[in-house]
Write a structure and sequence with these properties.
Blueprint lengths: L19 E5 L3 H6 L9 E5 L4 E3 L13 E3 L1 E7 L8 H6 L1 E8 L2 E2 H9 L5 H4 L5 E3 L3 E2 L10 E6 L2 E7 L7 H11 L7 E3 L7 E2 L5 E6 L3 E6 L3
Parallel strand pairs: 1-12, 3-8
Antiparallel strand pairs: 1-2, 4-7, 4-13, 5-6, 5-12, 6-9, 10-11, 10-14, 14-15
The structure holds zinc ion.
Length: about 220
């Protein structure tokens, strides 16, 4: 069954989830922690719709394939078609904001990167993108004032601020639309700040977004 994005007020988005367009290294502190150079243009990749799962439900992952890492990210629900969009058009097309985990098979990804191979299988497996409900947007928010956190078993592990994004939301979404047409029901992940780490089995996760989103969820044993 296709994943359908939902809003905090219980409404279902009228379209099922399409693709999930993601950016790597959108925070300089995270690029440095993985020893990656800070990019001068966004490093984009796609997770398939089949990788989506509900963040509010128990998170499962293919732990037998090696270390599974969490990356906490601001998620944007696309409400209108965007192709070669400018920044102002891009930000007006965002219908909701939420939170996501960009789960990554870090050992698998490392081996593929070493060989210069694509690393889709490390990022696109079933369940690789737990997505929260979305706060509906009636007006464009102050992107640089947005902040979010992840706590694992009560300990804060990641906090992100919109102001620290190398490519701010409007420019990032516009750039994405120059490579891939964005359609209603697509989701954009905006990159992770520092503090990524191994997802502990059986852990409790608490994700918060300024403006009212607070999600407590768990990882399968
Ligand atoms: Zn990520």
């Amino acid at each position: 069954m296709r994943f359908v994005p939902r809003f905090t007020d219980g409404r279902a988005f009228p379209q099922p989830l399409g693709k999930i367009v993601c950016v790597g290294r959108n925070y300089a502190d995270h690029a440095r922690e993985l020893d990656n150079p800070v990019p001068d243009e966004p490093l984009l990749f796609i997770k398939p719709a089949t990788s989506a799962a509900r963040l509010e439900e128990t998170i499962d992952a293919p732990f037998a394939r090696g270390e599974v890492h969490f990356e906490t990210e601001l998620a944007l629900l696309v409400g209108e078609t965007l192709k070669d969009a400018g920044a102002a058009e891009a930000e007006r097309a965002i219908a909701g904001i939420g939170l996501a985990l960009d789960l990554t098979l870090r050992d698998v990804q490392g081996k593929l990167k070493d060989k210069g191979h694509p690393w889709e299988v490390a990022k696109g497996f079933d369940g690789a993108c737990p997505l929260s409900v979305f706060l509906p947007l009636s007006e464009v928010p102050n992107w640089s004032a947005l902040a979010f956190t992840l706590a694992v078993d009560g300990e804060e592990r990641q906090h992100g601020h919109g102001a620290d994004m190398l490519f701010p939301v409007p420019e990032l979404v516009a750039e994405m639309s120059r490579h891939f047409t964005l359609e209603p029901g697509d989701v954009v992940l905006t990159g992770t700040p520092a503090g990524v780490g191994e997802l502990p089995r059986g852990a409790e996760l608490r994700l918060s977004l300024t403006g009212g989103l607070e999600i407590v969820t768990g990882v399968a044993d």
